[in-house]
Write a structure and sequence with these properties.
The structure is a single chain. Helix content is 24%, strand content 36%. The chain has 3 helices and 7 strands. It has a 7-stranded antiparallel sheet with strand order 1-7-6-5-4-3-2, with helices on one face.
Length: 151
């Protein structure tokens, strides 16, 4: 279905990185603070500190701001390294407005295919607008991830 027809359609992005699934998974999760573009995508308007990424369902993904409080980006709902993780996604939003983020890692002959699927736009008051912003935002974010894994 065309996005113009359905403003709540999933955002789906796919990149391939030149590593095995375990390395690609760890780079996306454990090493997230090494490549995430905090200047453009951070909860805080102050210098960021670090990000902690849970390692089990029910654990949070949290941005720790320098000199400030921890800010939860979401909560892991599925954790199956190195194949997939799923989490609620609500940076700077209440949990009731959470969307869902699923990231899958599949080894291929060229490395690992990473598929990001972002759904649940109907839970946000600004769902269609937010969906359009994330559609372009994830391109930039994943570009930083690919650069990290290849550099």
């Amino acid at each position: 279905m065309d996005v113009d027809e359905d403003p709540y359609a999933p955002v789906v992005k796919v990149v391939t990185v030149p590593s095995d699934a375990g390395t690609a998974f760890a780079a996306f999760t454990t090493d997230l603070e090494k490549w995430w573009p905090f200047d453009e995508h951070s909860v805080g308007e102050v210098a960021r500190g670090r990000v902690t990424f849970g390692t089990a369902a029910g654990e949070p993904v949290t941005e720790h701001l320098m000199g400030g409080s921890p800010e939860t980006w979401g909560t892991l709902t599925r954790w199956e390294p190195p194949a997939v993780f799923v989490m609620t996604w609500h940076p700077a939003r209440p949990p009731a407005m959470a969307t869902e983020l699923e990231v899958r890692f599949t080894e291929t002959a060229d490395g690992t295919r990473v598929q990001l699927r972002h759904t649940g736009w109907e839970h946000r008051q600004d769902g269609g607008t937010a969906r359009r912003a994330y559609d372009t935002g994830w391109d930039m974010v994943l570009g930083h991830y690919v650069a990290h894994t290849t550099g």
